[in-house]
Write a structure and sequence with these properties.
141 residues; alpha+beta; four-stranded antiparallel sheet
Length: 141
């Protein structure tokens, strides 16, 4: 399958560079793009939701499944992608999470009360940012 049937089923699609797009994830209520799509040189489609949705759930929400992401090839194996998603796409998709971290830090520095709900949301933002780094192939050191 080429990328067009996938992109046509998504909302808010924007090409970020040749072979790379971001869109709103169909598996959750997404106001800003958190889904990154990349078409590799060998025809594979890489899909990742930086809000944490599993790829099968994203595809099911638009009537596709995992085999739809791969070209038909018999007896060939694909090499893993070293950096599957461009850093700019990762940053676009986690911008809201970075804002949550910044807002939480400012609130703590100002000495304002910081309740359990705010702690939980901060920890979710940190987990999503870490997941985005992992998906982008970035090594924390």
């Amino acid at each position: 399958m080429n990328v067009e049937p996938l992109l046509s089923r998504l909302d808010g699609v924007k090409e970020t560079q040749s072979g790379c797009w971001v869109a709103r994830c169909p598996a959750h209520e997404d106001r800003r793009p958190s889904l990154s799509i990349r078409e590799t040189d060998d025809g594979r489609l890489l899909v990742h939701c930086f809000a944490g949705c599993e790829t099968p759930d994203v595809l099911a929400a638009i009537g596709l499944s995992l085999p739809d992401l791969f070209p038909e090839r018999i007896g060939e194996h694909f090499a893993p992608e070293r950096r599957p998603f461009p850093a700019t796409d990762v940053l676009r998709c986690i911008a809201k999470e970075a804002l949550v971290v910044a807002t939480s830090g400012a609130k703590l520095l100002a000495g304002e009360p910081f309740g359990q709900q705010e702690r939980d949301r901060l920890m979710l933002a940190v987990a999503r940012i870490q997941s985005a780094l992992d998906a982008a192939g970035v090594q924390n050191g």
